[in-house]
Design goal:
Blueprint: H1 3-7, H2 10-18, E1 25-26, H3 27-33, H4 39-51, E2 55-63, E3 66-73, H5 90-113, H6 135-153
Helix pairs in contact: 2-5, 3-4
């Protein structure tokens, strides 16, 4: 299965997100993190992600006569290349966006369901704004955002750090008018 097909599925995206940042989890941990997904489904998606080269078994240990597997993202895993977006059909973009939104909603609900969730204190944000940008201004903004985010994306877990899900969404809001 192609990386696009593997990763553009809401449950598999949520599993990948749950393992991001160097996390190692077993199927039970993932089931606890995704309570709306059946355990059978978790195992099925784990198998697909391992077979597709996205995940690997980090460790195996005996637990009550069975084998418990711990999973992690493969460092050399296949990725959806940025230029792949140029070859995707509008329906594939729709499917990818829907999968991303399903993951975002599920992760936000999981956050709100945690004991002590405090969106205001945690600086939760889901604002939208319309920016009027030329092609050059858009390119400049994206480059500057990358300059800010890229070094932070390399941060490892550590004291005082907690993971934050950042989901930038960008698309033209309206047809360009004749005066643009």
């Amino acid at each position: 299965m192609a990386p696009t097909d593997l990763l553009l599925h809401p449950v598999r995206l949520r599993i990948v997100h749950a393992l991001s940042g160097g996390r190692v989890r077993n199927a039970n941990d993932l089931s606890d993190r995704l309570p709306d997904v059946s355990r059978t489904s978790i195992y099925r998606h784990l198998t697909l992600l391992v077979d597709g080269g996205i995940l690997e078994v980090a460790d195996e240990r005996r637990v009550r006569g069975g084998v418990e597997r711990l999973y992690r993202l493969r460092p050399d895993r296949p990725r959806i290349a940025p230029e792949a977006g140029g070859t995707m059909s509008t329906d594939e973009h729709r499917r990818g966006f829907a999968a991303a939104m399903a993951v975002l909603i599920a992760e936000f609900n999981a956050y709100l369901d945690r004991p002590g969730a405090d969106p205001y204190a945690d600086s939760v944000s889901y604002r939208q704004a319309t920016l009027w940008l030329s092609a050059d201004e858009l390119a400049d903004m994206l480059a500057r955002l990358n300059e800010v985010v890229a070094p932070l994306a390399a941060n490892a877990p550590g004291p005082g750090r907690r993971p934050y899900l950042v989901s930038p969404i960008l698309f033209p809001d309206d047809e360009p008018s004749e005066s643009n």
